[in-house]
Amino acid sequence: MNNQEKHTGRVQQTAIYLGKLLRMFIYQSDWKVLPMGALIAGLVTFVVGANLFVTQEGTLTGCFAMVCICIWNGFFNSIQSVCREREIVKREHRAGLHMSSYIAAHMIYQMLLCIAQVAVTLVILRTAGVRLPQEGTVFAHGVVDVATTLLLITYAADMMSLMVSSIVRDPTKAMTAMPFLLIFQLVFSGGFFQLSGFSEKITVLTISKWGLNSMCAIGRYNELPMVTLWNTLLKFQDLEIYGIRPVADAVRKVYEDNLMDDFNLWAGTYNQNSLFVSAQENVLACWGAMIILAALFAVISVIALEFIDRDRR
User: Is 241 helix (H, G, I), strand (E, B) or coil?
Assistant: First the structure.
C-alpha cells in the first residue's frame, strides 16, 4: 500500500481491494470456480433431479444434495483467499490497512461470486428438467425462493471458509481443515442422522440444517406423496401366510380402484416433518439464521486479522 493509500478511509480501502479481487478473478483464473461448480451441480442433478420436489424421498435427498453443492462451492470460493496472501496483508496492515475494509471487500466480491454460482446452478436445474416449485412461500414465485435459499447457503459457507482462511497461516492448513468442516455440516444437518441431546443442539450452528429446512419447506415436503411404503408392499406382495397372500390382495385392490396416487399421498401424511412446514415464518427464520451465521463468521474474520501482527511464523 503506497503512502497515498495509507491514509484513505475504510470506504476507499474497500473499493481498492474490491478492484484487486475482481482483477484476480480475471487474471489469476479465480473464475474456474464457476465451471467446477457447474460440473458438480450437473452430476448431482443427473442422479437426484428426477424426483426433486416430486416425492418426499426425492425432495429430501435432492435438497440435501443441493445443500451439499452450495456448501462445497462456498468453501472452495474463499478457503485460500486470505491465507495465500497473509504476508502481504500483514505488511499492509502495518501501513494502515483497516481489516474491516479488507474483509468487506471480500464479502462484496464473494457475494457476486455466489450469485453467479447460483445462477449457473439454476440454469442447470432448468436444463435438466427439474420441476421447481411454481408457487413461492415468501415471494410470489418459487424459483425466487429457491434462488434466495441457495444463495444464502452458499454465502454463509463462503463466509465460514473466509473465517478459516483468516485464522490459519497457510493454504495447506486451510485445505486440511475444509474436509472436516464439510463432514461436520453433513453429519449435523439433521436430515439423515438421528440426533438427540447435545448433538441435536449443535445443529443450530450448522448452515446445512437451516439450508435443508428452508429448501424442504419451499418444496412443500409435507404435501408430497411418500412412495417408500408402496414400494415396500410391492416387494412383499408374494408373501404367503397359511396359504393367504394378504399383501398381494391389498396391492391388487389399490390397482383395481386406481388408488395408487391417493395411497402415496395418504402415506405422506404419516411422514411429515414439523421442521419442513411450508410457512413464510419458517422459511424466514431459516434465512435469518444463515444471515446471522454469515455475519458472525465475517466478524470473527476481522477480529482474527486484527492480531495478524502477532504472527511470528
Answer: strand
Closest CA to 189 of 162, 169, 213: 213
Tens-place pLDDT, residues 218-268: 999 999 999 999 999 889 888 888 878 888 888 888 888 889 899 999 999
Check whether 313 has a pLDDT greater than 70.
no
Cell 474490491 belongs to residue: 18
pTM of the predicted structure, to 2 decimals? 0.90
Within 10 angstroms of residue 2's Cβ, the number of other Cβ atoms is 6
182 residue type, one letter: L
The answer, yes or no, to whether residue 47 has pLDDT greater than 70, is: yes
How many C-beta atoms lie closer than 10 Å to residue 192's C-beta? Answer: 12
- Distance CA(17)–CA(102), nearest Å, equals 7
CA 2 vs CA 11, 13, 14, 18, 95: distances in Å:
17, 12, 15, 17, 8
DSSP letters, 273-305, are -GGG---HHHHHHHHHHHHHHHHHHHHHHHHHH
Average pLDDT over residues 25-54: 80
d(CA 16, CA 22): 10
- Buried b / exposed e over 255-275, threshold 16 CB at 10 Å, is eeeeeeeebbeebbeebeeeb
The answer to whether the beta carbons of residues 184 and 101 sit under 8 Å apart is no
Best CA proximity match to 20, nearest among 74, 93, 88, 119: 88
Owner of C-alpha cell 502495518: 94
- pLDDT score of 251: 87
* pLDDT at position 312: 61
Number of other CB atoms surrounding residue 131 within 10 Å: 14
CA 56, 61, 66, 70 dihedral sign is positive
